[in-house]
């Protein structure tokens, strides 16, 4: 069950997520997986405001390292993968 959090995440600092299908910067779902097992470690619902992201809900699991993980970020509206836009205007 997702828990209301409303916090900033250092892993999201300097990034925004653009959905080409919805033509904008919608709420996104971020799935954090463990690299070796592909197990889902955390699920986050993220809001985007102006130039920052905040986690609205997650599973309440604290990850102290992201070294052995990867993320899949999709649009919360259409479920399509989103483009990561960096603070400097680049695309990741």
Commentary on this structure:
It is built from no helices and seven strands. It is an all-beta fold. It has one domain. The strands form two sheets. Strands 1-5-4-3-6 form a five-stranded antiparallel β-sheet, with no helix packed on it. Strand 3 and strand 4 form a beta hairpin. The chain is globular. The model has no long low-confidence stretch (mean pLDDT 88).
List the total number of helices. 0
Mean pLDDT: 88
Distance between the termini: 30 Å
| Strand line-up of the largest beta sheet | 1-5-4-3-6
Strand content: over 45%
Order of helices and strands: EEEEEEE
Total domain units: 1
Shape: globular
**What's the Cα radius of gyration?**
13 Å
Structural class: mainly beta
Largest sheet descriptor: 5 strands, antiparallel
Low-confidence stretches: none
Q: State the share of residues found in helices, binned by percent.
A: under 10%
**Strand segment tally:** 7
Chain-wise SSE layout:
Layout: E1 3-7, E2 15-18, E3 28-34, E4 40-49, E5 52-58, E6 69-75, E7 83-86
Antiparallel strand pairs: 1-5, 2-7, 3-4, 3-6, 4-5
Task: Describe this protein with a few key phrases.
48% strand; 7 strands; mainly beta
Structure, briefly:
The chain has strands at residues 3-7, 15-18, 28-34, 40-49, 52-58, 69-75, 83-86.
């Amino acid at each position: 069950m997702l828990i209301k959090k409303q916090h900033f995440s250092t892993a999201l600092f300097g990034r925004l997520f653009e959905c080409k299908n919805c033509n904008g910067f919608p709420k996104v779902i971020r799935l954090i997986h463990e690299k070796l097992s592909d197990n889902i470690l955390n699920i986050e619902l993220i809001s985007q405001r102006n130039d920052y992201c905040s986690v609205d809900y997650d599973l309440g699991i604290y990850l102290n390292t992201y070294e052995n993980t990867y993320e899949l970020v999709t649009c919360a509206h259409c479920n399509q993968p989103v483009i990561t836009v960096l603070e400097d205007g680049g695309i990741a």
